[in-house]
Amino acid sequence: MARFWVCAAGACVLLALLVLHFHICGSPVFRKLSFQINWNAEEILYRLDVGWPKYSEYFTGTTFCVAVDSLNGLVYVAQRGDNIPKVLVFTEDGYFLRAWNYTVDSPHGIFAASTPHEQSIWITDVGSGSYGHTVKKYNSLGDLVQVLGTPGKKGSSLNPLQFDNPAELYVEDTGDIYIVDGDGGLNNRLIKLSQDFSILWLRGENGSGPAKFNIPHSVTVDSTGRVWVADRGNKRIQVFDKETGELLGTWDNCFIQEGPSAVRFTPDEKYLIVAQLNLSRLSIVAAPPVGDIGLCSVISTIQLADQVLPHLLEVDRKTGAIYVAEIGAKQVQKYVPWSGYVL
Question: What is the pTM of this model?
């Protein structure tokens, strides 16, 4: 069963739809979807793509993260569980292509870095086994290319570089890498690496003050040179200069109930999409102009069913589609821009 609402401020209207037999959903059981729509909003920004994926039976574990290769139209889903494939590969249309399970223990975050010359998949692994506490690079077929950290050994060292429950990463087209290290582990820090894996700068330690973190859980970078970190335990987003690591500002007014667990920009960078795990909510937040972080302003929300628990998400740079990894519902759902859609 999947249920969601698209809301902003004001009164909402509840629509109930019973939709689609197994020919679309991949299950003989009907799915119930609920839309709660605010007709007073200026626009409804997203709708659920009920046909993605074509068959949901491929989700056999707990789906922690999702990545999109926009150049090649591929979607990568990482899941946890025993004796299951850890990485699933789908087309953007929802067709399953392949799976792989090599050198992956307990995936937490995943990122697809795709250029015309190379397609690579990066995974943060928080497992306690021989592959844990690392950040790993794979090719698109699942062959291990590079390991950052000391496999199976957590730590805080910078030489050699060590991690403790690295949460997520973001890789720029230049090859520079931003890693948030500390999903409840020893470290609470943001690290920037060059394309040859040299440390360019490091920010953070455990705490609630400026440029300190309490579970830095997600990271993204905009085209103006700002690094956005979901500081989940401190219920805020902190913003840094990507060249110097200088703190530029903080958003905390939107996250009083629950800290952000994921943050990504829409392709036009007009909005940030922010997940709040325990509220089972996605917020569409207005992106600030260059030079002014200002206050957080929520434009619209997508309210998921209770206990769906959106953990991490990704936005397709070409289509603007949002893919949400839900650890409660144990699935990934796709939301597409509403423009041109007729109910």
Answer: 0.89
